[in-house]
Q: What sequence folds into this?
């Protein structure tokens, strides 16, 4: 009997599969040739992503520009579908292709903190994304990863040095807009008192 091997999807195959309408009710991403699907984002996730998007659009209105839950083709087997990406160029530059890197990528973690800080960090580092943020909604902090370090595939290590964790009371300035200051608390959903 022949060996049974899993199929590793390419971006081209993934795009064709998406055209069938199979993924209309869920968010999907292609990570190392595997398709991952999740239910639509929670209200908490959506609120945080909208807040981050509003701040970033103020800093990057046209070139570079903010993309929300859009494709980011990094390699032949990866489209992590980041929550937000600040891509070089204008929106019109991507009428016939998807960006293959970004100046900043932001993931909002409500239930995905571990994979965002490890698996996705490896992928974004390999794509030479100079700055990667993970907004930890439950922990009420922002992980700021800069200076990508290319690692061999599958290494469970932080692919950026340094990795700074900023509490809700702190601030951050993106590398691509160093004179801007964003309060971390302004990115997080408000905590309602009981």
A:
């Amino acid at each position: 009997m022949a060996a049974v091997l899993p199929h590793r999807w390419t971006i081209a195959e993934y795009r064709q599969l998406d055209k069938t309408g199979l993924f209309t009710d869920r968010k999907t991403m292609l990570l190392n040739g595997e398709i991952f699907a999740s239910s639509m984002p929670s209200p908490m996730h959506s609120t945080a992503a909208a807040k981050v998007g509003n701040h970033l659009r103020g800093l990057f209105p046209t070139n570079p520009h903010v993309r929300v839950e859009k494709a980011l083709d990094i390699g032949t087997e990866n489209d992590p579908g980041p929550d937000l990406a600040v891509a070089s160029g204008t929106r019109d530059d991507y009428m016939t292709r998807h960006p293959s890197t970004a100046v900043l990528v932001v993931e909002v973690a409500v239930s995905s903190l571990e994979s965002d800080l490890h698996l996705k960090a490896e992928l974004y580092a390999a794509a030479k994304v100079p700055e990667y943020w993970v907004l930890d909604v439950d922990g009420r902090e922002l992980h700021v990863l800069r200076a990508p370090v290319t690692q061999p595939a599958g290494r469970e290590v932080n692919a950026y040095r340094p990795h700074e964790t900023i509490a809700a009371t702190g601030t951050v300035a993106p590398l691509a807009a160093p004179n801007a200051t964003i309060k971390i608390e302004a990115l997080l959903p408000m905590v309602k008192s009981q």
